[in-house]
Amino acid sequence: MNKNDTLTSIFRDKRLALSALCCVLSAAMAGSIASGAPLSILFLHFAPLPLMLAGLAFPLPYTIGATAFLMVFLASFSAYFSALFMVGIALPSLTACYVATKHYELQLRLKIKNTAPEQTSTVYYWHNSGTILTILALNCAITAVFAVFTLGYPLDELVSHLIPSLEAMKTMKGVPPEVLQILENDEMRTAFALAIPVGGTAIWLSAMMICLYCAARLARYLHILQRPWLDLAHEYELNTIAIVITAAVLACVMLPNPIGYFAQFFAVVFLILWAIAGAAVVHVFARQTPMPMLALTIFYLLLTLASWLILPMALVGVFDALLGLRTKYGNRPSISSPSP
Q1: Phi, psi of 123, deg, nearest 5
Q2: Cα–Cα distance for residue pair 336/168, rounded to 1 Å
Q3: What is the mean pLDDT of the chain?
Q4: How far apart are CA 329 and CA 285, in angstroms?
Q5: Tell me, what's the pLDDT at 270?
Q6: DSSP code of 14?
Q7: Potential cystine with 313: which of 153, 202, 248, 278 (Cβ 3.0-4.6 Å)?
Q8: Which residues in 172-183 are b (16+ Cβ under 10 Å) and which e?
Q9: SS3 label, residue 20
């Protein structure tokens, strides 16, 4: 028995216990925010990682059962924290893991020339990364709407809860003068307060995506990943239905509040999804350069320094869905669903 087989057998023998341990670790990382320590913010954003690792590596019923038991246990101490953990971390993480590990078996009939009767062959189709991240993004948007109702609704009450935090920013060191100017104007301060939950949705979705990627990488390294590995450049795909939904969401943004305000949460997550599609196009073309790693490093460095580039990247993603840029010009396979 080699090293990889030994690791796999160890994890399989203690799957339920390891699933429960991952759930407890996620809850502990999320609960650390109560300490108020700066490092707890980092722990909060990476709290979904252990839970996603359990969902991708072990049978999902084990992870769901351990999470449900943990929710009941936490509710006996704090029903509020238990509800936030379930809606904000457990539900999006487990839903994404369910979609990631779900596959369909299709029976194909093969007729071979000059042979006996037809033969059947089983082909497995897995959800591509675009579908997985879309489900995750929708869950994050719903979580953000839930958080808004938790903080206060209608919107005037929400602003009244956020204004004291903005007032405290005036006394902080290192606050840019532009921000201080915004905080001095009542109308701009109110708009800034309403933009905080929307921006937080984008940050939380990005953190969830990073956690999902890290969990899949770790599970793959340990040889316990329950699905084939997905390649962003070739497997990420958003179809034309996503374009219609995005257009409908953008149209809703133009409506009066509260519909227009809540539509912004879904608009920002779809913007990120289309930007990832644009990044997939860049990945395909970067691989055709003499130094692909250098090209991708420069690309992500520019994207980090100039965040507004996410807008043209989203447009590139839309054009790819309509015109098939990766398939026509990037040597992308026409079939994007891998088999195990």
Answers
A1: -115, 135
A2: 50
A3: 79
A4: 8
A5: 92
A6: T
A7: 278
A8: eeeeeeeeeebb
A9: helix
